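Here is my example:
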Amino acid sequence: MNRAMRPALLLAIAASVALVGAACNKPGAPAASPSPAAGDLQTDDQKILYAVGVMLGKNVANLNITPAELELVKRGLGDGATGKKPAVDLEPLQPKIQAFAQSRSAAQAVAEKGKAQAFRDAAAKEAGAVTTNSGLIFTSVKAGTGKSPSGTDTVRVHYRGTLTDGTEFDSSYKRGQPIEFPLNGVIPCWTEGVQKMKVGEKAKLVCPSEIAYGDRGAPPAIPPGATLVFEVELIDIVKK
């Protein structure tokens, strides 16, 4: 997991809103028609516009909004997309948006860490589990017979990443293609954990947020403060 892969929530929201607004305010654009039911998404345009909504929704979800707040977001999106005069003066609110997002993210991180503690406690008690000083919980699943990489080596691995509730957010297995990366260019949990492995070994890494994506997370797939679970297979150490 590349530590640079931390999508900016506000940029994602802004980009999605801009895309929707541009589509709806385009000169000569037809008037809005009733929203098609899920089974009626037949044309590419319908599917693309629906996908824009889903992407925007996933980013807004990371603000941990209530149903009532969601209605406000929908109202604002509708007004902005149709060119209606905003109900509030936007300019003085601009500098407050970042602080609002950070506050919501921090609260979500605290809640997420609390939920994950029981999971980590149970994982640490599993047979063969070793908890390091960083908080990494390392469990070898299948022994390897090759060498162990150093912290600056480039490795080739297969992996599957999940949240503590089992939700999968990434998998090289599904893509059918292992990945290569330098161990000094990924999240600390991977840098530490993969060095403990030998070529041919399979292991489970339970990564507290402090050595994963921290309180920011990596929206929309990884919530703020999330503990991550990786199944990792060390295929090879790539020769320089």
Notes: DSSP finds six helices and seven strands in the chain.
